[in-house]
Amino acid sequence: MEEIERKFLVTNTDFIDESNVQNRIVQGYLNSNPSRTVRVRIKGEKGFLTIKGKGNNSGTTRFEWEKEIPVSEAELLLQLCEKGIIDKIRYEIPLGKHTFEVDVFSGENQGLIMAEVELSNEHESFEKPQWLGKEVTGDKKYYNSYLSEHSFKTWK
């Protein structure tokens, strides 16, 4: 399966009033390197195991495989993860025919707010909300796997 998405920084918290769903996400990485990541995630009341491949040159497209697992198993796997657990609240905001997912990070990444939108192809147009800021698609320092190793609080 291919995942096609674009990522943006968020300029303010106006999106909160537009959100129809919000979930706490806690995730860690069993393996993270330039060619693949293996992630364990608890999102709300569900557990997931996800493998993501290396992105294309623009960073918009990459292989993604995800399987739902029991939360109890996800909790055990999180204990095996590499240093740097990600903790965030994800807000879902429908806009036109797309849904923006806005992550408000806490813990070591507090202060970072990012949005992503999944697309059917790299060139698909989409409506941009007024709170959407600079595009960071393909900038590896905004990948969750990078943030788990180099927290936002340590950036200069």
From TrEMBL:
InterPro entries named among the record's database cross-references: CYTH-like_dom_sf, CYTH_domain, NeuTTM/CthTTM-like
Gene3D superfamilies membership: Hypothetical Protein Pfu-838710-001
PROSITE patterns in UniProt: CYTH
A Pfam family it matches: CYTH
CYTH domain location: 1-149
Domain of life from the UniProt record: Bacteria
Alphabetical list of SMART domains matching this protein: CYTH (SM01118)
CDD domains, per the entry: CYTH-like_CthTTM-like_1 (cd07891)
Official protein name in the record: CYTH domain-containing protein
